[in-house]
TrEMBL record:
InterPro entries (alphabetical): Met-tRNA_ligase_1, Methionyl/Leucyl_tRNA_Synth, MetRS_Zn, Rossmann-like_a/b/a_fold
KW Kinase (keyword) present: no
Reactions performed catalytically: tRNA(Met) + L-methionine + ATP = L-methionyl-tRNA(Met) + AMP + diphosphate
Gene Ontology terms describing biological process: methionyl-tRNA aminoacylation
UniProt record similarity statement: Belongs to the class-I aminoacyl-tRNA synthetase family.
Protein biosynthesis is among the record's keywords: yes
Cellular component, GO annotation: cytosol
UniProt name for this protein: Methionyl-tRNA synthetase
TM region(s), chain numbering: none
Highest taxon above the source species: Bacteria
GO MF term list: ATP binding; methionine-tRNA ligase activity
Domain Methionyl/Leucyl tRNA synthetase residues, every copy: 11-379
Keywords: Aminoacyl-tRNA synthetase, ATP-binding, Ligase, Nucleotide-binding, Protein biosynthesis
């Protein structure tokens, strides 16, 4: 058992600029779903929490490319994403609507507090030829000076390092293809969030006290340098803080996660950020927060969000475990819809059963290394016993020492800091192999096969 009241597992909100591909599913979402299911199987309360990332500039950019009205396109893609998750048996215990009126009032109160923090500063910002948009996010791309990967301005998705226009090599305005930029200084609200050496020292010390299974994330934290993150920027789409100016959606995501936790714990919808903070500190249930995310989001989940929880005094939102995965590959190359190397979730779901899809992707989930997926994995026949919903009594109360040992191992493995999909599959495979070997007694054989059958039913693999 995990020894605390409830595990709350957060995954990044999908951006509704398209459907999901297998890289999305095989990364944080399937890992988090399997972790939650295993926790519940061993009797430990758990919840998987996420929402939809409605305020990203990529939404309106894609809508314009397709000649569609932005909000209609967003709603269509939100429905598609929901269908994609259903097709892979991934469900959420809490999902908020971050466009709802009550949430927007709450968000405004949280941003007001953040804007008053000394790290939020108003300084000149850079725009391209189209002065309606800041030189950030989907509006400008550049080459990362750290790893030489081409990326949009904010954070490099390849190495995870923050990258503003001043650091980017060969920046280009996406809408015009031009390389000329100018400074403007007309914002009435803070434009940047500063992370200094003192913040880095705190983050590095804090990371030593928590669990992380990603060597790349550990290296990112160890090599952190002071940085400047866009807090607000010019845009006509997003959460508006003043006319023509929106908040960086990653700051909104932090506040959305806090709000979702409050909703999960039964708090009222119409409360301010300050009230939420107070109520979370008094909540009967003690959440144990885990973040599952792709390495490209490591800076946000491993640096920005913990720092925001620290400076805004929301200790409940300090993650206890960080689970960053690498990237799935197809035909030896990273899954990328923009590069035309993707298999769409909806296409696979239309051709294969849910359990087959989940089992095949679980086998190649890129927890710590990049692994390759190919669709013929879905035609392999499993040698494991068929899933059963009638074997729960055997799983819950094994009688043999071998069965008890398996149960104990699964309880330990269910803890997010210990959880690994590869280790879970290894334990199941070893249990089946032992049950089929001449070394197992009849009672052990029956019990192990029953426990695996129940586990396959619960995990839907």
């Amino acid at each position: 058992m995990t020894g605390h009241n409830i595990d709350v597992i957060f995954t990044p909100p999908p951006t509704p600029d398209g459907g999901l591909h297998v890289g999305h599913i095989a990364g944080p979402y399937l890992r988090a779903d399997l972790n939650r299911r295993l926790l519940e199987a061993v009797g430990s309360p758990a919840a998987h929490v996420s929402h939809i990332d409605n305020y990203q500039t990529y939404v309106t950019k894609k809508a314009q490319q397709l000649g569609k009205e932005t909000n209609q396109f967003r709603d269509e893609m939100t429905a598609q994403i929901g269908s994609d998750f259903d097709g892979f048996g991934i469900h959420f215990d809490q999902s908020i609507d971050n466009t709802a009126d009550a949430y927007r009032v709450y968000l405004a109160s949280g941003l007001a507090e953040l804007f008053d923090n000394e790290r939020a500063i108003r300084q000149p910002e850079i725009v391209g030829q189209d002065t309606r948009y800041g030189a950030v996010e989907s509006f400008v791309s550049g080459t990362c000076p750290n790893c030489l990967q081409r990326a949009f301005i904010n954070v490099c998705e390849n190495c995870g390092s923050p990258m503003d226009l001043a650091r980017a090599l060969s920046p280009v305005e996406e809408s015009t293809g031009r390389c000329e930029f100018v400074q403007v200084n007309d914002s009435r609200v803070p434009t940047a969030f500063m992370i200094d050496y003192q913040d880095i020292a705190w983050l590095q010390g804090w990371h030593l006290e928590i669990d992380s299974d990603s060597p790349s994330l550990i290296r990112l934290i160890r090599e952190l340098e002071p940085s400047r993150i866009a807090l607000t920027f010019r845009s006509d789409y997003g959460y508006m803080v003043t006319p023509g100016r929106v908040v960086n959606p990653w700051f909104e995501i932090f506040f959305a996660h806090c709000y979702a936790l409050g909703q999960l714990l039964g708090l009222p919808a119409d409360l301010s950020f300050g009230q939420l903070r107070t109520e979370l500190s008094k909540a009967d249930l003690r959440p144990w927060v885990t973040y599952y995310f792709g390495f490209d989001n490591s800076f946000y989940y491993g640096v920005l969000f913990p720092l925001l929880a620290h400076i805004l005094d929301v200790p409940t939102m300090m993650p206890d475990t960080l689970k960053a995965n690498r990237f799935l590959k197809i035909n030896g190359a990273k899954v990328s819809s923009s590069r035309g190397n993707a298999i769409w979730a909806r296409d696979l779901a239309s051709r294969h059963p849910v359990a087959t899809l989940r089992g095949a992707l679980a086998a190649v989930t890129p927890e710590v290394a990049e692994l390759d997926f190919h669709e013929d994995m879905l035609t392999a026949i499993s040698s494991w016993p068929d899933p059963s919903d009638s074997a729960r009594p055997i799983f819950d109360s094994p009688a043999t020492l071998t069965g008890k040992n398996l149960r104990s191992t699964l309880e330990l493995l269910s803890c997010p800091e210990r959880f690994s999909v590869a280790e879970l599959l290894n334990r199941i495979g070893n249990a089946v192999a032992f049950a089929e070997s001449p070394h197992a007694f009849d009672a052990e054989r029956v019990e192990l096969i029953g426990m695996v059958a129940h586990l396959r039913n619960v995990l839907d693999i």
